[in-house]
Automatic annotation (TrEMBL), chain A:
Residues 1-101 form the HPt domain. Its EC number is 2.7.13.3. This is histidine kinase. InterPro entries: Bact_Chemotaxis_CheA, CheA-like_dim, CheA-like_homodim_sf, CheW-like_dom_sf, CheW-lke_dom, HATPase_C_sf, HATPase_dom, His_kinase_dom. PANTHER family: CHEMOTAXIS PROTEIN CHEA (PTHR43395:SF1), SENSOR HISTIDINE KINASE CHEA (PTHR43395).
From TrEMBL, chain B:
The lineage of its organism: Bacteria, Bacillati, Actinomycetota, Actinomycetes, Micromonosporales. Transmembrane segments: none annotated. InterPro entries: Bact_response_regulator (IPR050595), CheY-like_superfamily (IPR011006), Sig_transdc_resp-reg_receiver (IPR001789). It comes from Actinoplanes xinjiangensis. This is Two-component system chemotaxis response regulator CheY. PANTHER family: CHEMOTAXIS TWO-COMPONENT RESPONSE REGULATOR (PTHR44591:SF25), STRESS RESPONSE REGULATOR PROTEIN 1 (PTHR44591). It comes from the Bacteria. Keywords: Phosphoprotein. CDD domains: REC (cd00156).
Amino acid sequence: MNPLLAQFLAEANDLLAQVDEGLLQLERVPGDPELVNEVFRAAHTFKGSSGLFDFPELTRLTHAAEDLLDQVRSGRLALDSGMTDDLLAAFDLIRGWLAHVTTHERLPASAGTDAAGLITRLRAPLGGEAVTAVATTATSTATIDVAPEWLAWLDAEWLTETAGWLATTSSTMRFVRYFPDSDCFFRAEDPLHLVRQVPALERLGVVQPRVWPGPDDYDEYVCLLSFILATRASLGELEYLFRYVPDQVQIVELDSDAITRHLSGEPPLQVEAAVTAAVMPMIDSDLAADARALLHAAQSSLAVDDVVAGDTRLRSVVHAVASAARALGVPVNLTGADRATLLAEIDRLLGAAAPAPAGVAEDLSTAVAAPVPAAAVADAPGRADDPGGQVGTRVLKVDQEKVDRLMELVGELNVAKNGLTFLADAAEEEFGSRVLSRRIKDQYAGMHRIAEELQAAVMDVRMLPLSVAFGRFPRLVRDLSRRLGKTIELVTEGEDTMADKDVIEALGDPLVHLVRNSLDHGIEPSDERIAAGKPPAARLTLAAVADGDAVIVEVSDDGRGVDPERVKRKAYEKGLISEEELETLSESDAVNLVFRAGFSTADQVSDLSGRGVGMDAVRASVEKLGGSVTMRSKLGQGTFTRLRLPLSMAVTQVMVVSVAGQRFGIPVDLVVETVRVPAGEMGRVLHQDVVMMRGEVVPVIDLARALDMPWAPTPGEDRRILVVSVNSQRIGLLVEQFHREVDVILKPMEGLLAYADEFSGTALLGDGLVLLVLNMKEVLGLAARVA
Amino acid sequence: MTSDTPTRARVLVVDDAATVRMYHNSLLGEAGFEVSEAANGLEAVEAALGTPFDLYVVDVNMPKMNGYACVEALRSETVGTAAPIVMISTEDRPGDADRAYRAGANLYLVKPVAGDRLVRVATMLTADRSWAAEKDVAA
C-alpha cells in the first residue's frame, strides 16, 4: 500500500473515533458549541484528506454529514436523536468502507447504493437536493475527450467492459503511459517496481520496442521497455507515486464515452505529438496562470484599506508581485513602492501577461500530467530526505510490535545480566579469585540498576489509560439500552488510571460481558423501577482506581440485584453445590456462585448476554490475567462487581523451587511462607498429608507425585514445605529445595506443550536454564486426581 | 533561480490532517524545499518564532488556532514576517478568499491542489528571497 493511503487510514481511524465520541457526548449535552465544533472539525479534516484519493462516494457521504454538522454548528439546526442515528450510521458505513480499502485499496462496489439512502436522509433537514448540487465533488479532473492512440494496446474486451462500468458509476478511470528514461537504471530508478506500486491497478501492459537491437548493440543497462496501465487511483496519488519521473509519464482520464468512441474506431488523438509540441507553451501558460493568480490576489490584498507602508502585509505583497513579475519575465522596480504604485504595476503586469492564446493547451494541462517546471527540479540542491525540524510530532505513534520487541530485549538483557552472578560464583569457586568475583558482582550491581530503570521505562511506554477500555461503552450502552427499551445513564470514573496495554486489551471482553449482563438482567425497565420507588433512569458506573501494583475496575448498577436464595437453589439444581452448602452458604458467597462454570440465571436467553457462556467466562479470563473477580449485591438495590488486575503482566515475580532435581517457578503472589518441618511432625488425615501450623491443619501435596516425577524425601530429614494460598485456601507443597525469587518475563507455552495447562508459561533464567512456571490451580487439580 | 542562494528554501506546512501534511511535504520535499510541519496555528506560530521560514502553506480549518488567526499572528508583531503565505482550504465559499487576503495571505487556493501547481507557486514565491529578508533591515 502506498504510504499516503496508509497514513490516511491511520488518521481516519482517530478522526472517526473523535466523531463518534463527540456525537454521543452531544446527546447528553445537547447543543454544547465546543462539542459540535469538535465533531465538525474532525469530519471536516477527514473529508479534506479523503479528497486526495479517488473515493467519490466517501467524499460525498462525508460532505453530506459535514454539511449537516455545519448547520448544527451555526445554530440553524438542533441536533436530534434521529440525526445522530443517521450520522453514526454514516460514519459506521465509512468505517466499513475503510476496512475494505485496507485490503482492496478501493471502495466496495456497493458503496454508491449503500450511501444513497443515507445521503438523502442526512440532507433532508437541510432542504434536500438544493444543497446536493453544491456537494458534487470539485476534486475530479477534467476528462479528456479523445482517447490517445496507445489505448489500442489494451484489450478491447476489457475496455468495453470498463466503458460499460464507468457509465454506471461516479468512479473514474485513469490511463497512464510511462516511458522510463533509457538510462533510468543509473539514477537508481526501478520502473517495474514503480508500476507495481500503482494503487487500484486494473490493467498493466508492458510495451516492447518495435525492433530489438542486435546482439552487438544490445546494452542490458539501457531500459527499452515502457508501460501502459489503467488504474482507479486519483490524480493526486499518481502524481505522488510518479513524483520522481513526472516528465516520463502521461496521465489521462477517460470517460465511458471516450472509450466507446475509441472502440468504434475514432481516429486517436496524437497525444504524444500533442504533448511534445505542447510542453513548452504548457509550462509557460501554467506558470503565467499562477503568476496572474498571484497578481489578482495581490490586488485583493491591497483592496484592504488598512494596509500601510512598513506593514508586513504590504512587504509580503511587494514580494509576491516581484515574484510574479520575475516568473513572467517582466522587469519591475518596486523598491519603496506604496499602495498606488503597486496597484499600477500590477495592472501593467496583468496587461503584459494576457492569457495564452489557445484553449487546447490549457485543457490538456489538467488531463495530461504537466512536467514540474524544469527550474524546480534542476535547481533543487539536494533531496529533502531528512524531515529535520519537524514541529508536529510531540507524540510518537509507535507500532505495538516495536514496543513488544523492546520488552523482549529487556527480558533478554535481564537474562544476560543474571548470567553475571553465575560467573561471579564460578570465579570464586572454580578459579579461586575472590577479588575477581567481587568485581563481577559490583559490575552486576551497576548493570542491574540500569536494567531495572530500562525495564521501568519500557513498561511505562506500554501503559495506557483505562479510557481506552472504557471508550467503547458509551456507544454500546446507548445502542443496547435503546434496543431493550431501558433508560440508562452511564458514568465513568478514573479513566486516567494507567495499566499495561496487555491488561487493557484483555480487559475488554470481560467488561463488555459484565456491562451487557447488567443491562440485560440487572437493570429493570423504567415502569418496574418507578413501581419500586427508584428514579426511572438507571445508573451504570464504570470506575477504575489504582491500588499499589494492581488496578481495580468496578462495574456497578442500581438495578434489581441478585437474589442469593435463587442463585443457591439454581446452583443446587445444577449440582454445583451440595445440600449442606445450600443450607450453610452465606449470602455473599452465594452471590459469587454465578462465577461457577455452567451457571446461568437468565430465565430467558436474550440476544444480548444469554447463551450460557456467562460469568464463568469473565472469571476465567480475569484469572488468566492473574486477577480476581468478586461480586456483591443487595437485592433490589443493585449489583457491584469488582475486578482486580495486575498493573502489568509483562514481568512476573516467581519463587523457584526444585523437586527431583528440576526447578519450577511459582508466582510469588500465591506464596504465603516457606517452612521446614521435622519429618516427625508431618501428619496424615484420610489419605491426605497434613501439617499443623499455628493451630491450623494445612493439607500438604507432594509436588513430585502430582507432576509424576521420581523423588521421595530423605527419611529423617526436615521436610521443606512451601505454603501457597489458592482460592483463599492454604495448601502446603512438599518440595526438595527452595531457591531465590526472580523476576521473569513469562512466555506462553507453545507447540505441543500449549495444551499443558499445569504450566502457565516458561521463562529463561540467567544460567540458560528454562524455568517452567506452574499454574497452581491446575497443579492442585492434578494432585487431587493423583490422590 | 535558487542557485544563487546558499541554502534551500524553508517551507512550513500547516495542516491538522496528517495525510495532507504528508502529501504537501513530499511534493515540496521532492522539489528541493526544506519542509517542516505544524499541526495547527499555534504550533506554526511557535515554529516561526524559533526560525523564520521562506514560505508558509497554511490550512484554514484547524483546532486550537485556525488558519486566519495563524496568518494574522504571523503578520503581526508577534512574529512579524513578510514571507509569502499561501492558504489552502477545502472551503470555497464567497468571502473566504477575501478573509484570507485581509489576514495577510498572498494566495488562496482550494483543495485539493494539484501537485505541480503547489510546487510551481512555491518555487515562484521563493525564487528571490531578498524581499522577505528586507524585514530584518526594516525592523
